[in-house]
Amino acid sequence: MSARDMAREFLGGAPSRRYWCGFDRIWMEVRGLDAPEGPQVGTAVLAAVRALPGVTAADLNYALSRIVVAVDDEAPSLTQLCDTVCSAENSVRAPEHERPLDLPGDDVVLAGRIAALATTGVGFGVSLAAAALRLPQLPPAVAAAVISADYQPRIRRLVERQLGPEATDVVLATAGAAILTLTQNPVSLAVSVLIRATLTTETWSARQAWHRHEPALAQHAGDDHPPEHPHRPRSLPVGPVERHADRSALAAPAAAAVAGAATGEAGLAGTALIVAAPAAARTARESFAATLGRGLADRHAVLPLRPPALRRLDRVDAVVIDPQVLTPVVPDAHVLDYIRRAGIRTISLRSPALGDGQNNVDELHEPADAPDTALHDAVEQLQSRGAIVAVIAAHAPHALAAADVGIGVVDDQEPPWYADLLVDDPSTAWRILCAVPAARAASRRGVELATGSSLLGAVLLLTSIPFQGTEPVTGGAAAGLWIGHRLARRTLDDPLAEHDRNRPHPDDAHRTLRDQVHRAERFALALPRGGQLPIPTPEQTAYLAALTLLVALQIIDWPVALVIAAGYVVTTDRRRPERALAQSAA
């Protein structure tokens, strides 16, 4: 894919055709396989491709919208193969502006994230140099338009419908880097560089996982039946991050209007829009999901076919389990017990494979004639009741396609192509499920940080304190980035998800993970000469914001406020381990 094609796509043009080459095989995107005339499109494309010289075999994979072509030394060029597929598609149906399914091996997502990282990095360097040389700069409020488009859910959805999610992310990141460079905000750009680097490494790890898995997957590449794309009985419920974003979207214009009307300054109104942006909520969840995805791919051989599923972990409250992946039952009983304690409802089918493990499952459904049909019905029932459902299965394409988070267990048969995450060991599936409490903690902490940051920013904005008001938002975004990263790392290192018979008692294991989550929520900066500088928690941030307001209103003096703030931070830090221990013992 050329840079020109990617630039055209990122600017709203027709998406480029996805493909991957390696091991004498080509995975080429086929459009229209999920349309009503999909079978006719598939037949025409197969016949056209198999007729090309140098093609030794070709199979259709409906689930991934790909034709998998095996070639010899006289292989057709990528351009020739692409033109052949396009002509065959157009012979059956009119060309349509469709958003493709990106696979981990495709270049466009990685290229887009590298471009966003490079742009942000260059902007950081230029902004740092410009600030050092005291060059003229634009006022910070100029960035309000780009930041509002990025954090206003309705505006972002409109852009995504036009460009697609990945292209929208690249375009907004590039625009944000450009405007922050012009306003000479190197601190915000440094945070952007860190989050862009985190997302880029996640994509790179997924790409490497694809290279490792592809030879085995190609042995069963054919998926010769049109997929069924189930419609969710109810719209996907919002989580804490989405709920806070919706509230911020309403509060931001109101805050800007009040600030502008009270001061008569348009610049202050624009800064108010920036202060209301829920940056910390997004960075916390993105950092958690990206770090978890990278760790699962690098350390546990997970292939994330659809990485956005990791961004839904914080909302999962039910899991439907294929009984065939519950064997052996004995080591899994501890994990099922932990999942239930985490508030995740477990559902499976009656099966001899469960044995005594039936006591650890909340609901047991009758298997009916086809287990896949029974699992799919269970998923739809849960979704109709407002649940966010994960599915762990090996051979249940309908259930995995309907799942909000599908975890497919790969064996020596046809891979579960409709899964979001492919694992080759059931224990890795349990590890992913055990990450749900940490995902919730990351989102909750992100929302708390975003709220405290906006509150403190508003206090600074409306007082005579010599700050712009946007500093707390940047600091909160950095803190959210660190919290998400640390929670994900502790989840990956957690021994609870390791399947061995010497694991601690479920109560002890549950307490151990909860203690790790509490410790992960604490963070500090390492000092050059050793030691650590603690950073206030969201609760402490809210307290300090109120204290700052009292100083701004001249109710108390600065020296007194500093003494009170120092004492409060020290005492709350000392009480936190005691509270965590008390909660674990509860």
Which key phrases capture this entry?
seven-stranded mixed β-sheet; disordered C terminus; 586 residues; 13 strands; single chain; four-stranded antiparallel β-sheet; 20 helices; alpha/beta
Question: What does the main sheet amount to?
Answer: 7 strands, mixed
Mean pLDDT: 81
How many angstroms does the end-to-end distance come to?
Answer: 57 Å
Radius of gyration: 26 Å
DSSP summary: helix tally: 20
What is the percent of helical residues? 55-70%
What ranges have pLDDT less than 50 throughout 5 or more consecutive residues? 497-511, 574-586
Name the structural class: alpha/beta
Which strands sit side by side, in order, in the main sheet?
5-11-10-9-6-7-8
Shape: globular
Secondary structure: number of strands: 13
What portion of residues belong to β-strands? 5-15%
Structure description:
By secondary structure, the protein is α/β, with parallel strands linked by helices. The chain is built from 20 helices and 13 strands. The strands form 3 sheets. A 7-stranded mixed β-sheet has the order 5-11-10-9-6-7-8, sandwiched between helices. A 4-stranded antiparallel β-sheet has the order 1-2-4-3, covered by helices on one side. A two-stranded antiparallel ribbon has the order 12-13. Helix 12 links the parallel strand 6 and strand 7. Helix 10 packs antiparallel against helix 16. The longest helix is centred in the middle third of the chain and has 33 residues.
